[in-house]
Amino acid sequence: MDDVTLFCTDGKSVQSLLEACKDFGKASGAKIFGCWDLCKEPLPFPIEGGLVKILGIWFADQGGAAAKSWNERLAKVKQKLGFWSLRHLSIEGKALVLRNDALPVLQYVTQAWPLLANVARAVNSMVFHFVWHSKMDRVKRTVMHKEQRKGGKAVPDIPTILRAFFVCGSIGITLLNENKDHSAYRVFRFFQLPV
Length: 195
What we know:
The chain is mainly alpha-helical. The protein contains 7 helices and 4 strands; from the N terminus they run H-E-E-E-E-H-H-H-H-H-H. The protein is elongated, with a radius of gyration of 22 Å.
């Protein structure tokens, strides 16, 4: 076992974690090293607070983690689109780049954070600046998002797709866990209210 990150909400969950680690240690021979203060007993692992990056996504005990995660991903997408804009692609080619190169980079964040309104505006601006090489749109965005057989150019509506990924992921987690006291259910209900 190497580099495990866990979220504990109270002393009871910490005790459950220690029991699970003890059972795992008996079965595998693995041990947790260190001595740390928390509650009544010292814990054999470090406790982190503030901003923590886990698998490329920021989490925090205060706030600002979602914005930081989205801003990092936006910078990566901007860099990728900058490389692709040096090539002379057709609009269909640019739509393909957006769908296959930019969307997966942003989609990864939706596993943890919903799309923020300012990020949605930035993504739309970035997409159409990439398509037209200017801030002026030559064709309405709604027409650009339509399928080619319906007279559009099949440019993906990335903010809508990202919102759908987040909602579908939240619904999936909720359906897998029937316990209404579970934190995933509460998180889904929290984000579902604005929808």
